[in-house]
Amino acid sequence: MIDLFFATSVNVYKIMIAMEEMDLGYEIRQIDISKGEHLVDENMGGSPTKKVPVIRDSNPADGGPALVIFESGAILQYLAEKTGKFLPVAPRARLEALQWLFWQVGNLGPVSGQAWHFHAFAPILAPGVDNRYSHQRYFHMMSALWQVLDRKLAAREYLADEFSIADIACFPWIIYFDPPETMSAYPNIQKWRDRVASRVGVRRAYARVAALKSDYPLNEKGMFLYPWEGIEKHMITT
User: Fold this and answer.
1) Does residue 238 lie in a domain region?
2) What is the distance between the alpha carbons of residues 71 and 63, in angstroms, rounded to a whole number?
3) Lower CB count within 10 Å: N or C terminus of the chain?
4) If DSSP codes are grouped into helix, strand and coil, which group holds residue 236?
5) Residue 69 carries which DSSP code?
6) pLDDT tens string for the chain (238 positions)?
């Protein structure tokens, strides 16, 4: 059994999609970051970063003691290698999938997160600060990344030809935000997004999120909104 330490995070949704797609059994252990629960070691499986996502695999592939893994990219690669699913075996195809996984982890995720921070969080956390430059900078960077992704998907259905952990990594970040321009500017992303969204495991993951009991409200996409109460005191989040 795998424990998934859960808080509202696009990066956590990636792991849920992977485990649903891989038909892995897992238990969700909810962490209320607005109350600082992520700062307590035992609440996070002993992960040193105190950030979600974290998993604890009680039955690791090497047969050893329970294994705690942090960082979403590392978790996705571990699960793919454990199950033999969604990471191509052929060296060039495997490299293609890993490149786009690391692209998401190093580019699409951080830039999108900053764009959303200065769009939605900064006006609440620092209402007296002029954040227009930061807002515009990150949305321009985000637009450039969407253009890269749209070009990549022009001639293929998935990022590495076949559905892989690269698609799993990118998908939640694409559906979480409205595009920097309009969706019509990214026709290839739109088709890819709809293709991934139709997968059974993807639908199960988001249905499981929506079914969780939480004090956090859901947005129109069925995803929890970020918890505001106490956030100023606990800025180490995801």
Assistant:
1) no
2) 22
3) N
4) coil
5) E
6) 999 999 888 999 999 999 999 999 999 999 988 788 888 888 899 999 999 999 999 999 899 999 999 999 999 999 999 999 999 999 999 999 999 999 999 999 999 999 999 998 888 888 999 999 999 999 999 999 999 999 999 999 999 989 999 999 999 999 988 888 889 999 999 999 999 999 999 999 999 988 886 655 545 544 444 544 444 433 333 3
Element (H, E) at 192: helix 187-197
Calpha distance 54→36 (Å, rounded): 16
Q: What is the pTM of this model?
A: 0.90
Beta carbons within 8 Å of 182's beta carbon, 6+ residues apart:
none
Structure tokens at 39: 């700062």
Q: Which domain holds residue 157?
A: 91-199
In terms of domains, do 193 and 114 share one? Answer: yes
How far is the C-alpha of 106 from the C-alpha of 114, rounded, in Å?
12
Which secondary structure element, helix H or strand E, spans residue 115, and what is its range?
Answer: helix 109-116
Specify whether 131 is located in the same domain as 81: no
